[in-house]
Design goal:
By secondary structure, the chain is an alpha/beta fold. It has one domain: Alpha-Beta Barrel (TIM Barrel), CATH 3.20.20.150. The protein is built from 10 helices and 10 strands. Strand 4, helix 4 and strand 5 form a beta-alpha-beta unit. The structure holds fe (ii) ion (FE2). The site of fe (ii) ion (FE2) has 5 residues, from loops.
C-alpha cells in the first residue's frame, strides 16, 4: 500500500467493466463482484431528432442497471462538444447531460475528438494539439462541465493519423486544456500504448510524466490486435503487459475514481473477431481480477466500493 497516496478529485469507486453491445447480453455484470459499470452512451442514447434521451427499447435495461449495486458511470466516444457546431446543439449537451444525470454518474467522460452531428461514423477524429484549440475547446469544455454538474474528463484517443497543424505535444495539450477549462482527465493507457507502438512520438512514461496526474478521474485499460501493418485499439484481447505496468505506476502517482476494463470486439471494429462468451468471459474476469489486485496493492484492501462494503459488514457483526 502506498502510504503517501494522493487524494483524488472524485470519491473512489474501484474497478469495473464497460457496458457495450458486445458484452451486455451475456456478461454476468451483477455476479462478477465489480465496483462500477461504465455505460457507453453512444449505444443507448436516442437520435437528436427524437424526443427521448435513451432509446425507448433500452429504457428498462438501463433503469435496471442504474438500480443495481455497481456505480454507473457515463462515458462516450463522441459527443461533438469539441466540434464546430454551437455547443447547445451537440449530443454532449442534448443527450449526455440528461443521461449522466439520470445515471447519477459521479463524472462524465468523452474523447478528444471533433465529432459532428451524425455521431455514427466519426471514429477517429482527433483534435488538433495546438494553443489555439486549447483556448477554443477550454471554453466549450468549461460550459459543458457547468451543465453536467459533475466533473467532465477528457479521454486521450488512439488515432490513425494526428490532426495536422498542431504546435503542442499531446500531453502538453491535455495539461493546458484541463488547466484552462478547470476540467479533468480520463487516461486510456491502451490508447497511449497504441500510439507509442504505431508512431513512437512519445513513450508511455514521458507521456504520463507530462500530465497533471492530480486531475485524473478515470483510467481505461484494454487490449488490441495487429491488422494491415498497424496495431489497433480494438478492445479484442487481454490487456498487454506494458499497460499493466503503466497502470500500477499511474495509480501510485494519482487517485482515479475508477479503473475500467474495455472489451468490445466487433462492437468496436467489423474487422476483428466476434466475442465468444465461453472464451471471453474468463478473459474479462481475469483482467478485472488483475486490475482489482493492483488497486488493492496501491490503495489498500478495503478501498474499493465492494471491499469497503464487505469490511463494514464484517465490522458490524
Ligand atoms: Fe478508452
Amino acid at each position: 500500500m502506498n502510504d503517501g497516496t494522493p487524494r483524488g478529485p472524485v470519491a473512489p469507486v474501484g474497478v469495473g467493466l464497460q457496458y457495450n453491445p458486445e458484452v451486455a447480453e451475456w456478461f454476468p455484470f451483477h455476479q462478477a463482484g465489480i465496483d462500477a459499470v461504465e455505460v457507453l452512451l453512444d449505444t443507448v442514447i436516442a437520435p437528436l431528432d427524437s424526443p427521448w434521451t435513451i432509446l425507448p427499447d433500452r429504457e428498462a435495461e438501463i433503469d435496471a442497471l442504474v438500480a443495481g449495486e455497481p456505480t454507473v458511470i457515463a462515458h462516450s466516444n463522441y459527443g461533438a462538444e469539441f466540434g464546430f457546431e454551437p455547443l447547445e446543439t451537440t449530443a454532449a449537451v442534448l443527450r449526455h447531460v440528461p443521461a449522466a444525470q439520470r445515471f447519477r454518474s459521479p463524472w462524465m467522460s468523452d474523447h478528444c475528438f471533433y465529432g459532428d452531428g451524425s455521431w455514427s461514423d466519426i471514429w477517429s477524429s482527433p483534435v488538433q494539439f495546438s494553443r489555439a484549440e486549447v483556448s477554443r475547446l477550454a471554453e466549450r469544455a468549461s460550459r459543458l462541465q457547468e451543465l453536467l454538474g459533475v466533473p467532465l474528463a477528457h479521454e486521450n484517443a488512439a488515432y490513425y493519423v494526428p490532426c495536422p497543424g498542431g504546435d503542442l505535444a499531446e500531453p502538453d495539450f491535455l495539461a493546458a486544456l484541463v488547466e484552462k477549462a478547470g476540467t479533468y482527465l480520463h487516461i486510456d493507457l491502451h490508447n497511449i500504448h497504441t500510439n507509442v507502438v504505431n508512431f513512437g512520438y512519445y513513450s508511455m512514461r514521458s507521456y504520463l510524466d507530462a500530465l497533471p496526474l492530480d486531475r485524473v478521474v478515470e483510467v481505461h485499460v484494454a487490449g488490441g490486435s495487429w491488422s494491415g501493418g498497424m496495431y489497433h485499439d480494438w478492445h479484442d484481447a487481454r490487456v498487454p503487459e506494458p499497460v499493466w505496468e503503466a497502470l500500477e505506476d499511474l495509480m501510485s502517482k494519482s487517485r482515479p475514481g475508477a479503473v475500467i476494463v474495455e472489451v468490445q470486439g466487433r462492437a468496436h471494429s467489423a474487422r476483428t473477431r466476434e466475442l465468444d462468451p465461453a472464451e471471453d468471459a474468463p478473459l474479462i474476469l481475469g483482467d478485472l481480477e488483475r486490475a482489482a489486485q493492483i488497486w488493492d496493492r496501491v490503495y489498500g484492501p478495503h478501498s474499493r466500493r465492494t471491499t469497503a462494503v464487505a469490511a463494514a459488514g464484517e465490522a458490524a457483526r
